[in-house]
Automatic annotation (TrEMBL):
Entry-linked Pfam families: HSP20
Domain of life: Bacteria
Region (Disordered): 145-165
Family: Belongs to the small heat shock protein (HSP20) family.
Biased composition (Polar residues): 152-165
The protein's name: HSP20 family protein
InterPro entries documented for this protein: A-crystallin/Hsp20_dom (IPR002068), HSP20-like_chaperone (IPR008978), Small_HSP (IPR031107)
């Protein structure tokens, strides 16, 4: 049986972050946020991520301060790398009232679409001091795209950057 790939899979991270902001920002803060048991992908927080080229390798850095490496799961399916897990909430402190609380706890999930043709044996990951670094060997390919002219409807001008890019 063939499994169809969801073309909107990468977009779900944006919706996860918007749902998290809505639940914590609009309703009065983290005390009104969902409990870890209530969290789904739609409400999981999305860790900060950098994607860069190091020579011919594609490097993905995911910031997971306060997360135990044992609580992190990496998977690769249908060209999509998924980093997921959970960050436990700090033990409650008696007599403490948070004035500002910006760190997120509970389930997290980040999906990144890797270059077409990426094979699992090209992917290597390390965890060091709260930072997951995933390296995709030979993951950077020369630009094989064609730039498309963009016309500004208000002025009628067309961009000059047309050609191979």
């Amino acid at each position: 049986m063939t499994e169809r790939r969801n073309p909107f899979e990468g977009v779900t991270d944006l919706f996860s972050e918007l749902a998290r902001v809505r639940s914590t920002g609009v309703h009065g803060g983290p005390e009104h946020a969902l409990t870890p048991a209530e969290r789904t992908h739609a409400s999981a927080w999305v860790p900060a991520t950098d994607i860069l080229a190091r020579g011919e390798d594609l490097v993905i850095r995911v910031e997971l301060a306060g997360v135990d490496p044992e609580d992190v799961e990496l998977s690769f399916s249908h060209g999509v790398l998924t980093v997921s897990g959970a960050r436990p909430q700090d033990a409650s402190e008696d007599g403490v009232e948070f004035l500002v609380r910006e760190r997120f706890y509970g389930a997290f999930r980040r999906t990144i679409t890797l270059p077409e043709g990426t094979e699992p044996d090209q992917i290597h990951a390390e965890f060091d001091d709260g930072l997951v670094e995933v390296t995709v060997s030979n993951g950077v390919s020369p630009a094989d795209s064609t730039r498309i002219a963009l016309t500004d409807k208000s002025s009628g001008r067309t961009s000059r950057t047309v050609g191979r890019g």
